[in-house]
Design brief:
This protein is α/β, with parallel strands linked by helices. The protein is built from 7 helices and 10 strands. The chain has helices spanning 44-51, 74-84, 100-110, 115-128, 144-156, 174-191, 202-205; strands spanning 5-13, 19-28, 33-37, 59-64, 67-68, 85-88, 162-166, 194-198, 210-215, 218-221. β4 (59-64) and β5 (67-68) form a beta hairpin.
């Protein structure tokens, strides 16, 4: 069976020539959740951006559902991100002058889903992240933790096949973090999605099927 996500021989350097990582291999199957840990600056966020096609590696391949990203033009890569990938950015990228409901529904609107159905789905996700009574509020008025929950709801609203999350619990209190982690785990396993979570949190990593450590030589099993 073709793995949902397959990465082979990936290498990436930063301006100035310093290598972030090389020889990086990773396979993620449907229904599998992978946590990636590592020191700051080792390239965890860069790796997620490469998987999503937002950045390019120096060497190596990334294939999603058997199709290499290098075979896609920008329009095809954009459609892939819109239709198949849910991305929780560390910087959130929430639009401040849209309501919470509008922010969460944005992937559905871009995908041509009718407004009534998009609103209903957005409200359901807002409920799941504990903001069900805030749909008409504007994002500019939110705290960091609330923005993070909106980013997570938006990433899951279109039932993505691949979920990429950069420190998804970094701004959340422990109770809310547990709720969000349970939502990730349930989404991945019940819907057969694949997920890669970058985290410094051992609690977040504990929900994963595998926890890997990103090093300059690639990914190795994390122990401890």
């Amino acid at each position: 069976m073709t793995p949902f996500l397959h990465i082979a021989g990936l290498a990436k350097s930063v301006p100035g020539g310093r290598s972030l990582f090389h020889g990086l291999d990773l396979t993620v199957g449907k229904g599998e959740l992978i946590a990636i840990m590592g020191e700051s600056g080792v390239g965890k966020s860069t790796l997620l951006n490469i998987i999503a096609g937002l950045d390019r590696p120096d060497h190596g391949t990334v294939a999603i559902e058997g199709r290499p990203l290098s075979d896609m033009d920008e329009a095809a890569a954009t459609r892939l991100r819109r239709d198949r990938i849910g991305f929780v950015f560390q910087a959130f990228h929430i639009l401040p002058y849209l309501t919470l409901r509008q922010n969460v529904a944005l992937p559905l609107a871009l995908g041509g889903v009718r407004a009534r159905a998009a609103t209903a789905r957005a409200d359901a996700l807002l409920d799941l992240v504990g903001l069900g009574d805030r749909g008409a509020d504007y994002a500019k008025d939110l705290s960091g933790g609330e923005l993070q929950r909106i980013a997570i709801a938006r990433a899951l609203v279109h039932d993505p096949a691949l979920i990429l999350a950069d420190e998804p619990t970094g701004n959340l209190d422990p109770e809310t973090a547990d709720r969000i982690l349970a939502l990730f785990a349930d989404t991945v396993r019940s819907r057969g999605a694949g997920a890669v979570i970058v985290t410094h949190s051992a609690v977040a990593a504990a929900i994963a099927d595998r926890t890997l450590l990103l090093t300059a030589a690639g990914l190795v099993p994390h122990v401890g």
